[in-house]
Design goal:
Shape: globular
Oligomer: single chain
Distance between the termini: 15 Å
Largest sheet: 8 strands, parallel
Bound molecules: D-xylitol-5-phosphate, zinc ion
Radius of gyration: 16 Å
Helix content: 25-40%
Strand content: 15-25%
Structural class: alpha/beta
Length: 231
C-alpha cells in the first residue's frame, strides 16, 4: 500500500501560499491539505473558498479540503466550484451526514468523513460504504503543532479491519502530530494518507521530511498481522 503525503498549508507562510504549495509538490507531495476553520466548531478562522479558487490557478495537486465548520452543507458548493477535489466534513457537525456525502458527490468531489479523537467509530460505520475517505484526527482539531494522541492508533487499526471486512474502497487519512516517528505507527495501523503541517513546513529540508513521513512501502495483505515493511 503506497502512502500519500498531504502537507497542511496551515503551517505554511500565508503571505506566499502559491509558492509554499509549489515547494511541497516539487518535493513529491501528492495532496495539498487545506484546513478550513470557522471560529465556531474550532476557535480560529482560516481559509475560505475564494482563497482556494486563487490557489487552484497555481497548482494541479489534489486539493484535500478539511472542513472544520458547523453546517458543512452550506459550504460544499462553494468549495467544489473553487476547485476542491476531496471535501471532508466532521461527523460531529452534521445532523444528516449521509445527505452531506450525497451533496459532495453531486458537486463532483470525492467525499471524506472526519472524526475527533473523542468520537467513536460507530458514528461513521454506516457511512463507510459511501465515502472515499475516512479521516481519523490524531489531535483535537484547531491548531497545528499539537502532540499526537496515541490512543487513536487502536481506532485506526479497528477502522482498517472494518473497511477490510466490508470489502469497500475507503482510504484512511490521519491528521495531527504526524512526523517521521508517528508516521510509522499510523502506517502500520492502516493509514494511507498522512497529513502533516509543522513537521513539513517547519523542516529545514522539506523533501527529506516528506520522504521520512512517507517511509518504506508496506506490503499489506488481507490481515493486519501479516503486514511487513520492504527492505
Ligand atoms: C488541525 C488541522 C491539521 C493541522 C496539522 O486541526 O486539521 O491539519 O494542520 O498540523 P500538525 O501536522 O502540525 O499537527
Ligand atoms: Zn486538517
Amino acid at each position: 500500500m503506497s502512502t500519500i503525503v498531504a502537507p497542511s498549508i496551515l503551517s505554511a507562510d500565508f503571505a506566499h501560499l502559491a509558492d509554499e504549495i509549489k515547494k511541497v509538490t516539487d518535493a513529491g507531495a501528492e495532496y495539498i491539505h487545506i484546513d478550513v476553520m470557522d471560529g465556531t466548531f474550532v476557535p480560529e478562522i482560516t481559509i475560505g473558498a475564494p482563497v482556494v479558487r486563487s490557489l487552484r490557478k497555481f497548482s494541479d495537486a489534489v486539493f484535500d479540503v478539511h472542513l472544520m465548520v458547523e453546517h458543512p452543507e452550506t459550504q460544499i458548493k462553494s468549495f467544489a466550484e473553487a476547485g476542491a477535489d476531496i471535501i471532508t466534513f466532521h461527523v460531529e457537525t452534521a445532523r444528516h451526514p449521509h445527505r452531506v456525502i450525497q451533496q459532495i458527490h453531486e458537486s463532483g468531489c470525492k467525499a471524506g468523513v472526519a472524526l475527533n479523537p473523542g468520537t467513536s467509530l460507530s458514528m461513521i460505520e454506516e457511512l463507510l460504504e459511501d465515502v472515499e475517505m475516512a479521516l481519523v484526527m490524531t489531535v483535537n482539531p484547531g491548531y497545528a503543532g499539537q502532540k499526537f494522541i496515541e490512543s487513536q492508533l487502536g481506532k485506526i487499526h479497528m477502522l482498517y479491519h472494518m473497511i477490510d471486512e466490508m470489502e469497500t474502497e475507503c482510504d484512511i487519512e490521519v491528521d495531527g502530530g504526524i512526523n517521521a516517528k508517528t508516521s510509522v505507527l499510523v502506517r502500520e495501523s492502516g493509514a494511507k494518507i498522512l497529513v502533516a503541517g509543522s513537521a513539513i513546513y517547519g523542516a529545514p529540508d522539506v523533501a527529506r521530511a516528506i520522504k521520512d513521513i512517507r517511509g518504506k512501502e508496506l506490503h499489506r495483505h488481507r490481515h493486519y498481522e501479516d503486514d511487513e515493511e520492504e527492505d
